[in-house]
Amino acid sequence: MNQKIILLLFVLLVTVSFGNVSQKRFNVNSMPESNTETIAENSTSVEIPIQAQNSFFVKSNAWQKLVSLQKDLRDQLTAYLTAMKKGDSHVIALFLLMCFIYGLVHALGPGHGKSVVAGYFLARRGKWMHGVGLGVSITMIHTLSAVILLFILFFLARAMVFSSFESSRMMIEKASYLLVVLTGLILIGVSIFNWKNTKKTNLSDSVNETQASWKELLGIAFITGIVPCPAVALVVLFCLLQGLFGMALLGAMAIGLGMGFTNILFGVGTIFLRQGIDHGAHKLGFLTQNINMMVSLCGGILVSMTGLLLFFSVQG
Amino acid sequence: MLKQVIWICFFFSISLYAHPHIFATVSLSIEFEPSGEMIVKNRWAFDELYSAAKLDVIDLNQDGKINSKEWLEVERTVVQSAKQYNYYNYLLVGSKFMASENYSNYEAKKEGSLLVLSFDLHYNLNLQNEYTIVTLAVKDLSNYINMSVDMNNVKVQAPSNIEVEYFVDVLKGLTLYKAFPPTTEALFLRYRKK
After folding, report:
1. Rounded-to-integer distance, Cα A9 and Cα B158, Å
2. What would the DSSP string read from start to end of A202-221?
3. Among A227, A254, B13, B123, which lies 20 to 30 A Cα-Cα from A206?
4. pLDDT 10s digits, A247-279
């Protein structure tokens, strides 16, 4: 009985204290014009970054869900690593599985070579194993470069590991996006150049000219993946800080494979799309060359547009 | 020649980081001063992965403890660097997003394994007899830091001379917030002289 009275008095006290504050829905459009005068004269305003206004991708509902999923996965990863640090080895398999899923989801976001892979296989004809090869090799190099860099920095210049990465992020982003645009423009130029050439030669020559080759793929994979992946870098660094050196390597590989899986889907999907288009174009006979050029042009435009959109989504 | 140019372009066209690598759970509370000044109290708890990396980096002498000088490094690199985006607090009054002149009560600490920062933002608004409507959303629009804010748990307090009403809803349909994902939760608040 006494408890009830105390509770009642407490509620009454709170109500009296904050009675002037209430949670209540009101019409936000009913604001009188005079309200703008409530801004004090010496107040300053802040501008919304124009890039953010144009980044339609990050505003989409699907993207928000992906981000939320990544957060949950990363929390789970750190929980497993903490358990391993305490000696629980039963969670190793779960940790590696979670790393794979995290890599798969993480690579769905912009910036892991999907558009480069897709654009390349639109401009160059390939077989399904080319798609698998390029998808895996880009992300594995992307991952390995992070692992190697982190291990070196951790043991030689530990205090520089994260700060140098953070400070250079924005500049690298902008430069990268502009070069994506340029890459796309060059692919467009190559398509037009090839189209003009094939007008002078026969069809089989033009088909051979646009075939993907292993040598070319490996080269692209190396130069595309050489910049370390920041997501992998954070997981590796966390493992190193916990003294879990083996897990740093295994976890990074699992994330790399997950990211590779996503890239493979895009690569192989584009290869089949290109084969389908070629098949359809062949039936049309005289239009074949024009359709080939259009597809190759689309590859270049895709890469350029991706670069442009990403460039304008960068803050700063 | 053309091939070489393409290869060079591929070399640099890689590191596209427009997705979150830092996650922060943000707690807010709002207090009004009798003059009408609005104070938004921010508390950011970073995810364990980022916290571990950041805490290790600022520990310059690597003694396992963060001293006051080292905590200042967090303030410089995390809070002060966000000033141009008003510390990711977007407070709309009329058609203007208000900038907080400065922040106060900055505090950084380690809570468990998490890096937690807190600071207060001050908005210099006048108090009137008519309602003033303000909208508050917290988000890093570059998407590098993903900020989760539970708007439903925002505490609002006001002195007896100010009447305040508020509710939580998403930003969908608000043209001035077109840069934000429409599902972003915001606090819609109105206040006036009592």
Report:
1. 21
2. -HHHHHHHTB--HHHHHHHH
3. B13
4. 999 999 999 999 999 999 999 998 998 888 877
Is beta strand B114-123 parallel, antiparallel or unpaired with respect to B162-170?
unpaired
Cβ-contact A264, A132 below 8 angstroms: yes
* Eight-state DSSP code of residue A49: P
Measured CA to CA, the distance from residue A38 to residue B189 in angstroms comes to: 14
Q: Is B170 on the interface with A (CB under 8 A)?
A: no
pLDDT at B36: 87
Please indicate whether, in this complex, the C-beta atoms of B77 and A166 are within 8 angstroms of each other.
Answer: yes
- Partner A contacted by B76 (CB < 8 A): no
What is d(CA A241, CA A98) in angstroms, rounded to the nearest whole number? 20
CA distance B140 to chain A (A): 9
Q: What pLDDT, on a 0 to 100 scale, did the predictor assign at position A53? A: 53
Interface membership of B150 toward A (CB under 8 Å): no
What does the alpha-carbon distance between residue A241 and residue A103 come to, in Å, rounded to a whole number? 21
From the CA of B150, how many Å to the nearest CA of chain A?
14
Is A284 buried (19+), middle (13-18) or exposed (0-12) by CB count in 10 A? exposed
Asked if A190 has any chain B CB less than 8 Å from its own CB, the reply is yes
What's the mean pLDDT in B101-114? 90
Q: Specify the pairing of strand B89-93 against strand A21-23.
A: unpaired
